[in-house]
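> example.struct
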């Protein structure tokens, strides 16, 4: 329709509204347009992250910025109400010259308010589909609370349970971490980052952090180029392929070059080879810490090394905001480097839709929704691992009239939430005692006694506990760790439980009652003294807000346990590191400990069910093949018991001879299947030789050698031969 003023061409007018604000313009053009309008100072501010509101991470102290400039690039947001975030966002959009939105980040590691099991527990579920669902709930609760970006998933392969952060990742295996990494990225990021229920993921801590010497945090990590490629990088490659928007650079010194100033990992591998087009944020203060690590004389040099290595954003070091302008003026950092970094940050903000929808609507009833609680309960149950159920088959408990619930974890909500509990509340938690009351209260009498604290020497509660145990038909003894004993900066020289807990177990065991030991902890434990004292042992980890309900369901048999260990339980601390995919010894018949067994207490993949599964012989579509051929290996699995049960079928490969020595076994596929009693399922592993049989060398080159390969499932092996 003709305009009243007769004007027909509005292009010159529309040109006045900068392109970057025009949502009809392609994102990259909007980014280019904006970058071209920015001053150097405005660019530099995009490369900084401060905090907004209270800081609930005690390990992180830093110079808090009170008057936050409207030009700030990012803020860590510690609240659940979008109002504070929106107020700051209005300042960024309206008080700064160009109106660039802030990206708000937060550590929603295993849930935002609906807290799920810790990641190490989730890994034992062998159910990445369920993990993805949990991450999508965490994303929705986060985004609706003003958080656009979660500093998760943590995918650091870890084999030293003295390191508290073993709790945050998905265990000792590279492939398993890679599968869960991809699942969590897809859960967090959904179909589009611009949805109001998704968040940007952040792969961390890039890279090799799990190799922390002696299990201590923030220390040196000896990572050979070979181990970097065959152990620590695979989960990150999977995350980048899954589309992760960001990564976080690690604190650790990677064999002389700290992760936050490492051009090989951050530029050569991530940008040049993997073509990642998002950005990297440092870990808290990691740039400034380059001084302490002896890589930089001062913060200014640290800033230059970090940015030139490919680290785009400075979390709370105040290195970039204070020194980059000077470094550019001195020619030590080029504006082109700055531009590339800023482009990456703006690209993620554009993909999140923050330019077009910068504010978070206040949606009521966004937490603890029934469907989300159901996921919490399912994931808790599938993460739990039945480690022992003796010949009397103590579990499931049948026709038990008197149940004693004893121990420091029995009536304890907070510690079931685990480390990095986000905005989880102890009152949201179904405790073990509450779970048992809900499950058994109708037909059984239940009595509780704490017995002792988590630690210390106070035995004054023992008498009441022993009296309660004497009264009972069965004792459910709930032992474990404080949530503070794992997670960041939470290393322990021994992975045994405190003596007071073991003493309580010893005294209860002497009464001769059936004892079900329930363990709530954030790491593998030393159980060689506790194991003989219990008829059954159920590892529930830190199971999140529905832990009590899931645990009680397993005790009653309403739920058949299906978890399998994603990390080895050493026989004792002295065995560490002990993990399944070790290299072969030249003298397998020697080299054993003189004073203890050399076998772990419970191996990777261990986990009992209330039913039994029988595996037939594996067969292959062909046993000789060429590298461009696919092979299908199958195995029949039958539920030979009388209860429905889910079985995770784990497929490993081994390459007996290779020009680079390989681990004794390597997990390469798994599938979890529910089988009715008597039901048989043929489980398959469709092998792509290049994907599943190849190896990687110290420079990241993948190769596939002809010769023999073994496929192993449930200890049964089938040999294949690659002919060319
Ligand atoms: C911490 C942790 C990291 C976390 C960050 C922000 O130091 O190492 O995992 O995401 O700071 O809280």
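> example.seq
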């Amino acid at each position: 329709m003709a305009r009243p003023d007769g004007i027909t061409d509005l292009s010159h007018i529309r040109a006045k509204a900068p392109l970057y604000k025009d949502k009809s313009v392609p994102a990259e053009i909007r980014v280019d347009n904006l970058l071209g309008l920015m001053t150097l100072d405005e660019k530099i501010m995009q490369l900084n992250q401060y905090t907004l509101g209270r800081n609930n991470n005690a390990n992180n102290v830093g110079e808090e910025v009170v008057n936050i400039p409207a030009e700030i690039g990012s803020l860590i947001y510690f609240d659940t109400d979008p109002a504070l975030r929106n107020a700051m966002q209005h300042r960024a959009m309206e008080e700064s010259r160009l109106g660039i939105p802030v990206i708000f980040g937060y550590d929603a590691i295993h849930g935002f308010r609906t807290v799920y099991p810790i990641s190490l527990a989730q890994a034992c579920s062998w159910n990445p589909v369920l993990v993805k669902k949990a991450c999508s709930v965490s994303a929705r609760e986060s985004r609706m609370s003003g958080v656009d970006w979660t500093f998760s998933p943590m995918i650091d392969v870890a084999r030293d349970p003295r390191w508290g952060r073993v709790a945050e990742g998905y265990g000792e295996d590279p492939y398993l971490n890679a599968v869960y990494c991809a699942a969590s990225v897809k859960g967090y990021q959904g179909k589009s980052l611009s949805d109001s229920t998704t968040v940007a993921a952040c792969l961390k801590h890039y890279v090799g952090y799990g190799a922390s010497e002696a299990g201590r945090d923030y220390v040196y990590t000896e990572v050979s180029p070979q181990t970097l490629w065959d152990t620590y990088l695979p989960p990150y490659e999977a995350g980048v392929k899954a589309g992760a928007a960001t990564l976080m650079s690690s604190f650790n010194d990677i064999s002389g070059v700290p992760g936050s100033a490492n051009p090989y990992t951050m530029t050569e591998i991530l940008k040049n080879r993997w073509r990642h087009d998002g950005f990297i944020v440092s870990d808290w203060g990691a740039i400034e810490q380059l001084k302490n690590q002896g890589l930089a004389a001062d913060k200014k040099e640290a800033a230059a090394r970090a940015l030139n290595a490919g680290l785009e954003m400075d979390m709370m070091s105040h290195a970039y905001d204070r020194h980059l302008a000077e470094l550019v003026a001195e020619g030590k950092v080029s504006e082109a480097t700055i531009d590339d970094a800023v482009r990456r940050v703006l690209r993620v903000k554009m993909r999140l839709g923050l330019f077009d929808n910068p504010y978070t609507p206040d949606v009521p009833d966004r937490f603890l929704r029934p469907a989300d609680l159901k996921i919490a309960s399912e994931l808790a149950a599938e993460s739990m691992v039945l480690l022992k159920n003796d010949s009397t088959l103590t579990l499931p408990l049948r026709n038990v009239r008197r149940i004693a619930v004893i121990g420091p974890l029995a009536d304890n909500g907070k510690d079931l939430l685990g480390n990095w509990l986000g905005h989880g509340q102890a009152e949201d938690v179904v405790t073990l005692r509450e779970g048992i009351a809900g499950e058994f209260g109708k037909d059984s009498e239940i009595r509780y006694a704490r017995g002792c604290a988590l630690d210390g020497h106070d035995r004054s509660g023992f008498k009441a506990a022993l009296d309660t145990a004497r009264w009972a038909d069965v004792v459910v003894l709930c032992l474990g760790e404080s949530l503070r004993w794992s997670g960041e900066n939470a290393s322990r020289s021994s992975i045994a439980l405190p003596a007071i807990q073991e003493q309580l177990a010893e005294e209860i065991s002497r009464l001769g009652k059936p004892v079900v030991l329930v363990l709530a902890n954030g790491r593998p434990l030393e159980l060689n003294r506790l194991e003989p004292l219990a008829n059954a042992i159920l590892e529930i980890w830190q199971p999140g807000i529905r832990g009590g309900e899931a645990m009680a369901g397993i005790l009653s048999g309403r739920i058949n346990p299906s978890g399998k260990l994603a990390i080895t339980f050493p026989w004792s601390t002295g065995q560490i590191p002990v993990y399944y995919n070790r290299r072969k010894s030249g003298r397998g018949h020697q080299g054993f400990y003189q004073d203890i067994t050399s076998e772990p207490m419970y191996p990777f993949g261990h986990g009992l069910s209330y039913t039994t599964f029988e595996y037939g012989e594996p067969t292959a579509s062909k046993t000789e093949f060429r590298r461009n051929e696919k092979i299908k290996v199958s195995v029949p699995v039958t539920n030979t018991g009388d209860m429905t049960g889910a079985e995770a079928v784990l497929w490993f490969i081994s390459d007996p001879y290779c020009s680079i020595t390989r681990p004794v076994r390597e997990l390469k596929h798994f599938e979890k299947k529910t089988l009715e009693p008597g039901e048989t399922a043929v489980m398959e592993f469709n092998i792509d030789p290049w994907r599943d049989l190849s190896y990687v060398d110290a420079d990241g080159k993948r190769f596939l050698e002809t010769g023999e390969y073994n496929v192993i499932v449930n200890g049964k092996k089938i040999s294949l031969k690659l002919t060319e």
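> remarks
The longest strand covers residues 645-654.
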